[in-house]
From TrEMBL:
Signal peptide stretch: 1-23
Keywords: Signal
PROSITE patterns: PROKAR_LIPOPROTEIN (PS51257)
InterPro entries linked: GH (IPR017853)
Presence of keyword Signal: yes
Domain of life: Bacteria
Lineage, highest ranks first: Bacteria, Pseudomonadati, Bacteroidota, Bacteroidia, Marinilabiliales
Protein name stated in the entry: Cellulase (Glycosyl hydrolase family 5)
Natural source organism: Mangrovibacterium diazotrophicum
Amino acid sequence: MNNMNKKIYLGVVVLMMAFTACQNSPKKTQEEAEPVAKIWTKEQAQAWQNENGWLRGSNFNPSTAINQLETWQAESFDTATIDRELGWAENIGMNCMRVYLHHVAWEVDKDGFKGRMDKYLDIADSHGIKTIFVIFDDCWNPTYHAGRQPDPKPGVHNSGWVRDPGDLLYEDSTLVDELEVYVKDVLTTFKDDKRIALWDLYNEPGNSNYGNRSMPLLKKVFDWGWEVRPSQPLSAGVWNLSLSDLNKFQVENSDVITYHNYEGPEKHQAAIDTLKLYGRPLVCTEYMARRNNSLFTNIMPILKKEHIGATNWGLVAGKSNTKYAWDEPISDGSEPPLWFHEIFHTDGKPYKQEEVDLIKSLTLGE
């Protein structure tokens, strides 16, 4: 989920260097040893994978929501659309959705926000779908506000999506204290909820030219997560070859390793081969951009074979406009010649029946 001019695909060189450095780092004496790590052991991570099986699904926000705030605010929380669209996901064998939160929706109405999370989880569970919740996000618009959200800009990919916490983190020195309360409140409330598969603590840290400016918040959200230590795994997905410091921290501190890759099969396989060296379960939390040769037909079979969680971008075309490509706006809002993301039209008709048939052939009976 990114503008093409900002996206640098996940590569292998930096991660190989991080892995080698980790393996070759000097061993500490018992006196120098740090406190017991909060990260899961590899055995705990494997037990989680054994329990959850092959997770496959989409990044999901209802088609009636332009962004995370419209998804979660009381006045626009659309249970009918959520239920209908998750039913379409269930019918093609999906069992996991990745869903973004936003601290402002919590700030305005803490108990109501958590109640809506619970209601969403009830709906998803009724369709046999677990949830990956995303807490922070460095993508798209830097500022935001509670209340009515903007209308989509015709033909512009994710025109109304908002970062969390975005630029406000660097403008308000007190915000980090509120974010700590938010993260701990949400994690504590749902720390033992079996409907939740995983906590994705920070989507694409360093995006939007933040770079290492995102490192302090990345470290803090892991610290806050470890203080709560939910029963579900904690992770933050690697996504950008150039962000070596962030990559190293993410892969070394995630209970299970998550990543994004919008490349074709050869480069995607190379990324998998590198990440497997860490000996932990893998979940691909973003893939599938048709223009880029990242397709259900050539990537999803690899992920199933490798037993890697497969979460494509986009379920139903809607207000987020992610059927349009990152860097190819269509100003009159007409239909793109090739959908970039998404599986279904708003009436439930598949964009490509052969894709849906392929997905069902991989998922049903699992």
